[in-house]
Write a structure and sequence with these properties.
By secondary structure, this protein is mainly α. The protein folds into 2 domains: about 290 residues, MetI-like (MetI-like fold, Orthogonal Bundle), CATH 1.10.3720.10; about 210 residues, MetI-like fold (Orthogonal Bundle). The chain is about 75% helix and about 0% strand. Strands 1-2 form a two-stranded antiparallel ribbon. A hairpin with a 4-residue loop joins strand 1 and strand 2. Helix 4 packs across helix 10, helix 9 runs antiparallel to helix 10 and helix 17 packs across helix 25. The longest helix has about 35 residues.
């Protein structure tokens, strides 16, 4: 072999194994494989095993289908989740549309009224709805004051739907809004100049362009609703029992891992089928807020049917709008959207605000309005070793989770931003997977894995579980900023002699600081509010603040919970204000 040939072979050998910038995503890929894919896969594997005989079996699935109770709960879970997604879209679309029309500075302030209830603890929001809808709650107190009979608003489907739509509505709005803000309004104006009415321009142009955001919102709200157990357990009755509640009971009360795995499989299959349909139509990249997906390439019967439906909606809206305009007048019609948006914002914010006066009540009961005011319940909270210990642990776990999630997600976001590899799309979807798989399925699978390696009832186990759940939020937050980063600045630093590490720390990181801060705070809040992992991985020993709140809400409602809810609300509010202040890159 000649020297030239040998040299050519030496030059080509490294290129064969070169993976480009995607190597930066390797830590995240390894972390998710070990602590996300393996636990979920092992749990699903249990569903087709007879653990006593050590053989393969399909009896657990047959039991679900043959037992009317389980099958009814399964169908009820899908029905409630579907209704929640549908109502969240119907109520949330006008609000997102109104927010998208606001000037950027005004929009940023208005969105805070959606962000605060979005990141407020599910337990706090559910507790608030228990106060509002109870037999002696806010609504029934108002009815009693007007001489009207009280209404059964709690422990039925109305209570469940109120709580779930309130929980999912901010997610729907915040998912649709980024897509709407990227729509070029000149396209709507152009349709008007070609003779289209404002209603036709909206339905046939604007709404069609916003469909990827609408579909993404429907996807995320449906999948998130599948794994709900807080709201149905506290606001619903036996008829509103959902699949996640059965899974928890199978593990905690019956230790039936295999049957819990079968129930989890049904939930996971429903989520994956929904994601597959969405990906075929729009592409999973729209989950990060990108308006471009596969919607523009949708052809054939589905697209034709969709256009006919939009045309029918346009025609119907024109008729209804004309009739309403004649009744209330054009000036009042112009105020309908702002007034509606204000009403929805009140619906989102009011439940959390109801908790505030009860936290300062002098009564030992959840009376509204309070008969007097006192700091007694805050004293009970801060003098309790159990409550303080749970709070300190939640802060420590959330802080560690935020650091780990931000670092891992930041490296992955940088990798995908710089890479042109054909694996880029698959890796992107992989990092979003913990957002797609119902949390209860992941929590049960992680508990089974940690029980075998000794990480149950450890702070490390909590940090690992919370980091998996926080990674998608951190990844999306950083990716949104990195997408607009000018990489020529990094190249300029390299030409001036800076190595890769210095370029990263002195150029790239300061310029994407807003995304990193947002990722850190979102990961912190995700961990601080997480309950599914805490119930299982905490093992009843490592109690976090949400777990302690859950235990007290199950046993007995008392004003101490209102005091704790107020503290959590203040913490979340402060973090969101910090995120809003620091979200922009340094200039």
């Amino acid at each position: 072999m000649s020297a030239a040939t040998f040299q050519g072979a030496a030059d080509t050998e490294p290129r064969r194994w070169r993976f480009g910038p995607l190597w930066l995503a390797a830590p995240g890929l390894a972390f998710l494989t070990v602590f996300f894919v393996v636990p979920v896969a092992r749990l699903l594997g249990l569903s087709v095993q007879d653990l006593d005989a050590g053989t393969w079996s399909g009896e657990h699935y047959a039991r679900i289908v043959d037992t009317s109770v389980y099958f009814r709960v399964l169908l009820g879970t899908f029905r409630i989740s579907g209704l929640t997604a549908l109502l969240s879209l119907l109520f949330g679309y006008p609000l997102a549309y109104w927010l998208a029309q606001l000037p950027e500075r005004t929009r940023g302030k208005a969105v805070l009224f959606v962000m605060v209830p979005f990141w407020t603890s599910y337990l706090v929001k559910t507790f608030a709805w228990m106060v509002i809808l109870g037999q002696k709650g806010v609504i029934n107190q108002i009815l009693a004051g007007t001489g009207l009979p009280s209404l059964p608003l709690l422990h039925n489907e109305f209570g469940v739907m109120a709580g779930m739509v309130h929980a999912m509505l901010p997610l729907a709005v915040l998912t649709m809004l980024p897509v709407m803000t990227t729509i070029d309004r000149r396209l709507v104006d152009a349709a008007g100049t070609l003779g289209a009415s404002p209603v036709n321009s909206f339905w046939l142009v604007y709404f069609q362009l916003s469909l990827p955001g609408v579909a993404a919102a429907g996807l995320l709200t449906f999948i998130s609703s599948l794994g709900f157990f807080i709201v149905p357990a506290l606001l619903g009755g036996p008829q509103q029992t959902m699949l996640a509640q059965l899974i928890i009971a199978q593990i905690q009360e019956m230790l039936n891992w295999a049957f819990a795995g079968a129930l989890s499989t049904f939930m996971l299959v429903a989520a994956l089928v929904t994601c597959w349909v969405y990906d075929r139509m729009f592409g999973l990249s729209t989950l990060s807020g990108e308006g471009s997906g596969r919607a523009g390439s949708a052809q054939g019967r589905l697209r034709a049917a969709g256009m006919r439906l939009l045309a029918a909606l346009a025609k119907g809206s024109t008729t209804l709008g004309g009739a309403a305009g004649r009744v209330v007048g054009p000036r009042a019609m112009a105020w309908l959207l702002p007034l509606y948006s204000a009403a929805v914002i009140v619906f989102l914010v009011a439940p959390a605000l109801v908790v505030v006066p009860i936290a300062f009540t002098s009564s030992p009961f959840l009376d509204f309005p309070p008969p007097g005011y006192s700091l007694n319940w805050f004293r009970v909270y801060f003098e309790s070793d159990v409550w303080v210990g749970a709070t300190v642990r939640s802060f420590g776990v959330a802080f560690a989770t935020a650091i780990l999630a931000t670092v891992v997600a930041g490296l992955a976001a940088l990798a995908l931003a710089r890479s042109t590899s054909r694996w880029r799309g698959a890796i992107f979807a992989f990092f979003l997977a913990p957002m797609i798989v119902p949390r209860i399925v992941f929590a049960v699978g992680l508990f089974y894995l940690f029980a075998q390696i000794g990480l149950v009832a450890t702070d490390i186990g909590l940090v690992i579980g919370h980091t998996v759940l926080a990674l998608p939020f951190a990844f999306i937050a950083i990716s949104a900023v990195v997408k607009g980063h000018d990489w020529r600045l990094d190249q300029a630093a390299a030409t001036l002699g800076a190595n890769r590490f210095k370029t990263l720390m002195l150029v790239t990181v300061p310029l994407i600081r807003g995304g990193l801060v947002a990722a850190f705070l979102f990961a912190f809040i995700t961990s601080f509010d997480e309950l599914s992992v805490a119930i299982f991985v905490g093992g009843g020993v490592k109690t976090t603040l949400p777990k302690q709140m859950w235990d007290d809400m199950i046993l007995q409602l008392n004003p101490t919970l209102a005091a704790v809810s107020f503290v959590v609300f203040v913490i979340v509010m402060a973090l969101l204000l910090i995120a809003e202040r620091l979200r922009r890159p340094a200039r």
